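lol so apparently i was supposed to do this last week
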Amino acid sequence: MTSSLTVRSLSVRFHLPGATVHAVSDASFAVRQGECLALVGESGCGKSVMAHALMGLLPGNATVAGSAWLRTGGAPPLDLIAAPERVLARTVRGRRIGLVPQSPAAHLTPVRTARAQLVEALRELGNPAPADELAARAGLAPAQLDRYPHQLSGGMAQRVVNAIALAGDPWLIIADEPTSGLDRPLVDATMTELRRLADDGRAVLLITHDLRAAEQVADHIAVMYASRVVSLAPAAEFFAGPRHPYAAGLLEALPSRGFTPIPGRPPELTDLPAGCAFLPRCDRSTAACSHLPEAGTEPSRVACHHPLEHHVAR
Ligand SMILES: Nc1ncnc2c1ncn2[C@@H]1O[C@H](COP(=O)(O)OP(=O)(O)OP(=O)(O)O)[C@@H](O)[C@H]1O
Ligand code: NI
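anyway here it is w/ adenosine-5'-triphosphate bound
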């Protein structure tokens, strides 16, 4: 059986005094063996919260609903949302799923060298591979590993956490902005490495603002807007002509496509409308849009009452 992660109707709420943050709403998608799914969307739309929900890393004021079934060869299927913390800690985090955290510097211990932290991860996860080898794959020279976190540039710290995420040889790699602070050649190298991991029979969930990087590596593109996955499409289709007006807007905002920003701002996640959250920014909206659009069906899903036509030959 093909290994996969299948997320169904995942919702995450944060309870604050006097307000509820709707960080992830009714998200469904799958990542299969050999595939890379890129998750894109503006800052604050819920991408990292989704990653943390899958890893069991949400804070105490969060409630989670839905399911996320992890099926990988040999091990019994596991619903990451229902699984006890003990099981996630012992069998999932670092082992079946490796997370590249979004803020590398915050995840490194200041008083120990990068090497000490990578060696510890390898030992804990029972991986006999030499630290230098893992580091080299992440684009780090052995001498750079001997530095303390404050002696690392942002790009080097990024590469250290990328290497640590792979220390347990995980089946799924969730990479949350793995290229922030990296220059183009290192972005390309990181994407090549992620592609290699997927091609080796693993799976990659890439969270990124960098659509150009996503285009290099992803098989499918999921777009989040205001806590919802509003579009999910094969990458070739997405880049040829996205059907969701928000997805189209994201592409038009790229420097290579004219740099036209989407006017307006996303709504507050404490105060989401009942209908389409993109309505106030959308030039295709009608009265129908005050009702929530259906999520659509795979392989090319578009949660919109008035999707754009696309002209890709099927
Ligand atoms: N512990 C928390 N308590 C309350 N709200 C939170 C908490 N953690 C995250 N949020 C809120 O959840 C929303 C989604 O945040 P998230 O970090 O997932 O965004 P993101 O899509 O990853 O953005 P970026 O691209 O900037 O990383 C934000 O509005 C954020 O303020
Ligand atoms: Ni984030």
